[in-house]
Amino acid sequence: xxxxxxxxxxxxxxxxxxxxxxxxxxxxxxxxxxxxxxxxxxxxxxxxxxxxxxxxxxxxxxxxxxxxxxxxxxxxxxxxxxxxxxxxxxxxxxxxxxxxxxxxxxxxxxxxxxxxxxxxxxxxxxxxxxxxxxxxxxxxxxxxxxxxxxxxxxxxxxxxxxxxxxxxxxxxxxxxxxxxxxxxxxxxxxxxxxxxxxxxxxxxxxxxxxxxxxxxxxxxxxxxxxxxxxxxxxxxxxxxxxxxxxxxxxxxxxxxxxxxxxxxxxxxxxxxxxxxxxxxxxxxxxxxxxxxxxxxxxxxxxxxxxxxxxxxxxxxxxxxxxxxxxxxxxxxxxxxxxxxxxxxxxxxxxxxxxxxxxxxxxxxxxxxxxxxxxxxxxxx
Length: 380
Prior knowledge:
Elements: E1 2-5, E2 15-21, E3 28-29, E4 34-40, E5 43-48, E6 53-58, E7 65-67, E8 71-75, E9 87-89, H1 126-135, H2 153-159, H3 177-192, E10 195-203, H4 213-227, E11 233-235, E12 242-244, E13 250-252, E14 254-256, E15 259-261, E16 264-265, H5 273-289, E17 302-305, E18 325-329, E19 333-339, E20 342-356, H6 362-377
Parallel strand pairs: 13-17, 17-18
Antiparallel strand pairs: 1-8, 1-9, 2-4, 2-7, 3-6, 4-5, 6-8, 10-20, 11-12, 13-16, 14-15, 18-20, 19-20
Helix pairs in contact: 4-5, 4-6
């Protein structure tokens, strides 16, 4: 018998939730035939079979969350050519130190004292190691509760203090899909970023009737990236430094009942308002249908949150590394202001800019926000 393990279907993927199986035990499949649909990092994708053969066992039920590298499907031997290098021979190959055994009763062991063993000697999957690094947990101090003394994801989360004692009577709703991805990203942002926020208001009273606010915001943001490139950058850490981008790919926060999606609109600076609107409409349709490609959820150079469509004026937003900035637009409102020496009522659009103060200076941030304000206040 040989097993096919959950592959990494996207950059940085650590886990996937089983949505639906397309095969059953005893079925004969061919190479590239869809085996299962999984949801990970805000998209649903199909996992194809790496080979032809007969299905001997399926690991997991719909709703189960598996780490990358975990056993997914067992193939019976002698039922077709093995065309995939990721298909391993379970009976004769013992689990490597970084992999959890495919089966066997769970065994609890006591935690070793700090320094008694190296992190490399700890039994944990690559996904669990990555989580420990993100949460700042020393694996050598974690009490393993997984099969064969393997450190499980729950062990790392417990060690990081992410799991509270259940002292309530209400049912617990597990985090799945989009909300689980949001938890991972926001936790990482909270541990890494040093945020600071500046705010302003743009006078948009001269906008023509029917002006598309989101397209105007995107244009203003792109022009601000040219005026102050420090905000359109990736921070790679103190030792590596930063990378200033020569293109503007905007991650646009989209709120849904399932959670927060942040699809990416590419090359914003070189697109017309009509093209931007078409891109936004296509993005919304893909999200509602849950067909947005994984590559459209990655690689943003800066983010935009148009939260004002729901309410609120200003906000301290969350910067997701390696990005260094996110722009927010609040709810537009009418205000009595002084204009050209007269008291008038004007339409104002609140603006917020949160930036990573580890790498962006206050002067750079305020100049960037002012460039956005000036562009928005232009009549055309």
